[in-house]
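Case study 2.
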Amino acid sequence: MREFHYEKLKNRQWDKDVLGYIGLIHEYKGKQQLYLKQKPMELSRLVDIAKIQSTESSNAIEGIVTTNQRLKQLMQEKTAPRNRNEQEILGYRAVLDMIHESFEYMPITANVILQLHKKLYSFLPTSFGGVFKTTSNEIDEIRSDGTVVVRFKPLEPFETPEAVQRLCEEYNKVIASGEVDPLVVIPTFIHDFLCIHPFNDGNGRMSRILTALLLYKSGYIVGKYISLEKKIQDNKSEYYDALQQSSEKWHEGENDDTAFTKYLLGIILSAYRDFEERIEIVSENKSAYEMVKNTFSIKLGKITKSDIMELCPSLSRSSVEKALRELTSEGFIIKHGKGPATFYTYK
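Prediction:
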């Protein structure tokens, strides 16, 4: 049986990259508290946008997709699911809602993890939601050409319940001690969870749900406003590489999960940086024109239409295009290239 000894983390020597990530995230967390008090309207807008992006991206990583129009209708509860994909999308939205509303009251236990998994599958007529795996499974990577590569062989079904219980106990013990920064405990927990791979289906999505939950409980709530799932989707190959590198000799308890820790901390830091940028752009009284104009004050160098839509996700494509035409006509920005290669620079 694989053992977990999280108390060893307090004596672990981290390299300058990990320490740098932790220091910067702590700084952003401090600023986060100011924004929570000063800009509640802007933050409420970001929550709705991030929830849609998180639901879409976390499912898309697993190949679960629908059209943009259907996604928005499902998220706004304006339609019923038509197929399994849409049922799973609704399940993810339901779990996010639960975490956003009640994370303070969710202890990190095997039972809570089972309940979250059950909620994830609450729109499907299946019997395995909220039940640990009954058959052996493996961690696969689905590449862009459709081929599947086996990345890791997890624990067997008979080992799983006790392993998850021990994992939660170790996490709670080290967090309660206050001797280890949660920013290194959380990636370790998520990595071990993925290596256990406790469910027949939904392990990847559950790992991202648990990442949000653990971060929220430790006061790092940036994932409510900037989708961590989308950032993982945008860097999916690096995610799989870090997971594989960190999983070598995991069964023997001799693995080095530094690569996965760096990856996840990098995702969190990137989200905080986006949060600070976006809170300045998405203002209660700003028009689409003003929001697009502000992006050129914040970002340097080449800016594409996709960059702007990422920074201003509340705007429609047509609104962004109209604003870009106006700013170009006024000479505020310069348009370069044509078609997909088009980009803009501040004049």
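The chain has a mean pLDDT of 92.
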